[in-house]
Design a protein that fits this description.
Blueprint: E1 13-18, E2 24-29, E3 33-40, E4 45-52, H1 53-62, H2 64-73
Antiparallel strand pairs: 1-2, 3-4
């Protein structure tokens, strides 16, 4: 599963880990991606999405129908 939210578009952040001796090594901050299944009443089927926790809150606020419409308007297939 890729570390990308289908609603908000969040992707990993990149940077450096700095040790006590101040050596620097590469690291990444992954978004908190969860697989969540929603029911689309208009289509009579279930949809599984890879969402960040902020994306889940967005669906709770706006509703699954409007969020799916936005995803499809971007050209993503669901």
């Amino acid at each position: 599963m890729s570390a990308r939210c289908q609603v908000t578009g969040r992707v990993p952040g990149f940077g450096k880990s700095v040790s006590h001796s101040h050596k620097r090594s590469n690291r990444r901050w992954n978004p908190n991606i969860q697989r969540k299944t929603y029911v689309l009443p208009s289509e009579g089927r279930r949809v599984t999405l890879a969402l960040s926790t902020k994306g889940i809150k967005t669906i709770d606020r706006d509703g699954i129908e409007s969020v799916v419409a936005r995803i499809r308007a971007r050209g993503e297939k669901i």
